Amino acid sequence: MNVGKNVHKNMGPHTRRDVHGRHPRKKSWKELSPMARFGTVTAGTVQLALLTAAQLDISRRPAQEIRGSKGLWRLATLVNFIGPASYFTFGVKRRVATR
Predict the structure, then answer these.
(1) Who's near 86: CB < 8 A, 6+ residues apart?
(2) CA distance linking residue 94 with residue 99, whole number of Å
(3) Ramachandran region of residue 12, left (φ > 0), alpha (ψ -120 to 50) or beta?
(4) pLDDT digit string (tens) for 2-28?
């Protein structure tokens, strides 16, 4: 028996707010404004694009051109936004420009 759910159901709205602090419950997708929905979809699309680009780059780039282990960079790129950005910033060895 899940006691936590039963206790939570029996609380009134004011008591529930007191237990959880000042944060109201999370909004469902239907309750979000059109701009909030657009922002969520855009952020998700950008995140997936960065993840895909980083994973493809790791697959195609020789190990000698990557700082550290390919496996560790694959794991690191799974961290939202920070992982792929870190890989492209710190993980890829840059070639020296020649003139």
Answers:
(1) 76, 79
(2) 16
(3) beta
(4) 555 555 565 655 555 555 567 778 889
First CA to last CA across the chain, in angstroms?
A: 73
Is the pLDDT reported for residue 78 higher than 70?
Answer: yes
Closest to 51 in 3D by CA, of 79, 71, 72: 79
The β-bridge partners of 66 are 92
Q: Give the pLDDT score at 13.
A: 57
Where do the structural domains in the chain lie, given as residue ranges?
3-91
Q: pTM for the whole thing?
A: 0.68
Q: 63 Cβ partners below 8 Å, 6+ apart?
A: 70
Alpha helices in the chain (DSSP H): 3-10, 13-19, 34-60, 70-76, 82-86
Quick one: residue 62, left, alpha or beta (phi over 0 = left, psi -120 to 50 = alpha)?
beta
Q: Which pair of tokens denotes residue 53?
A: 């680009």
